[in-house]
Amino acid sequence: MSSLIAAKLAAVQQQIQEIAAHCDRNPQSITLMPVSKTVAPETIREAIAAGYPLLGENKVQEIQSKAAALADMPHQVHLIGHLQTNKVKDVIGLVSCVQSVDSLKLAKKMQQRLEFVDSHLDILIQVNTSGEDSKNGIAPEQALDLIDAVCAFERLSIKGLMTIGANTDNEEAIRACFRQLRQLQIAAQHKYGAYSDFAVLSMGMSADMKIAIEEGSTLLRVGSAIFGARDYAAS
């Protein structure tokens, strides 16, 4: 059954294909992740039904509150927002990946909880490539040291890196953020190739998707282009 959400997803997917073709990339190497923060479960179900079962959520509380309503539809959730150490116990078992690991303290807490429940979890290392105080993430110059430390935690599997582009209309500044993450990915692949291929580059949202694809993104976190403007006062 067709829906407005399915139509918007198709439109975004078409944009991805066109941008990828223009920069000689295989569009199948780029995953579109609908970001469903503040979105009602019935609307999220439309996205899953349209063939997009990988969702991004910002808050542990939202993931918990939506879990029952989506339980009958096969899907996966990535936590893309900041994770406080006291929320680690709540998110383990509800997500397939935490994209926002940015400190050794958090990684240790996750490792301890995963040992307790005898489980494993995929993660991305979040890097603050913009240098903006409003954004979380490890500083770029400290990223490889954090990766080096987290590699020792056998319950955590680093799949790649995540960043948020600079909050600006300056395309070159945004591009510099994404390019720096790509350079860190290459450095990590060279140094830690035996541990992980670090294949995932999670970068790019509705407003800067084109630049992200041009700079090598493999995972786009797209919210407003699919679900419309958010009512954060209701979240």
UniProtKB/TrEMBL annotation:
Pfam families: Ala_racemase_N. It comes from the Bacteria. Keywords: Pyridoxal phosphate. Residues 9-230 form the Alanine racemase N-terminal domain. GO terms for molecular function: pyridoxal phosphate binding. Its cofactor is pyridoxal 5'-phosphate. The modification N6-(pyridoxal phosphate)lysine is found at K37. Belongs to the pyridoxal phosphate-binding protein YggS/PROSC family. Pyridoxal 5'-phosphate (PLP)-binding protein, which is involved in PLP homeostasis. NCBIfam families: YggS family pyridoxal phosphate-dependent enzyme. HAMAP family: PLP_homeostasis (MF_02087). This is Pyridoxal phosphate homeostasis protein. It comes from Suttonella indologenes.
